[in-house]
Structures are given as C-alpha cells and as structure tokens.
Design goal:
single chain, 118 residues, mainly beta, seven-stranded mixed sheet, four-stranded antiparallel sheet, 0% helix
C-alpha cells in the first residue's frame, strides 16, 4: 500500500507561482512512477506531469515550459513547480503513484485546490 499526501495549493494571481508537494509513505519501493493530475469543474481528470524512477519526465502540452516536476528520493517527495500560472490552470491537483508489485496499482492523494485569479 502506498499513501500520498499533497500540500501547497492555494490562491494566486495570474502570472504567479506555486509549488505543490506530494509525500509518499508505505511501500515506497514498489513505486515505478509518480505524477500530477488535475481536474477542473465539469472536466475530466487529466495528466499534468509525470516522472519515472529513472528520472524521465513527461508533461502535457498545456504546461510545458511553465511547470516542472521533480523528486527528492531522500524525502520520498515529488514536487510540481508551477510558474506563469493562468486562470485555466485552476483545478484540484492530485498526486498519483503507480507500480506493479505485488500487483499493478495506482494510488491517489486527496487532492489540493489551486485557484488562479485573473
């Protein structure tokens, strides 16, 4: 079992920055990749960024060049640095961890609200 706790959301003006954190606990060794997803009202949850154990990152086109995902293995924490925020970035942001031991799993955090005012 992997447990995830997000923090760092809040209200920011357009053009501002926020950093989200996701602390993982439990069966850390079983995680293959972690990522950030977001869900805006009335929309489907979408991938924002992901990072593998090998450090390979992936970003959605809408955030490339503005957001950066990183990880601190010593702290079992993944970060999402969000710069040049736009009102359309407003959503609940969820942390996700995926692995394949002892069986394929996908764990989610409780979500953190990010609101960008224009």
């Amino acid at each position: 079992q992997v447990q995830l706790v997000e923090s760092g959301g809040g209200l920011v003006q357009a053009g501002g920055s926020l950093r989200l954190s996701c602390a993982a606990s439990g069966s850390i060794f079983s995680i293959n990749a972690m990522g950030w997803y977001r869900q805006a009202p009335g929309k489907q949850r979408e991938l924002v960024a992901s990072i593998t154990n090998g450090g390979i990152t992936n970003y959605s086109d809408s955030v490339k060049g503005r957001f950066t995902i990183s990880r601190d293995n010593a702290k079992n924490t993944v970060y999402l640095q969000m710069n040049r925020l736009k009102p359309e970035d407003t959503a609940v942001y969820y942390c996700n961890a995926r692995g394949t031991w002892p069986a394929t799993f996908s764990s989610w955090g409780q979500g953190t609200q990010v609101t960008v005012s224009s």
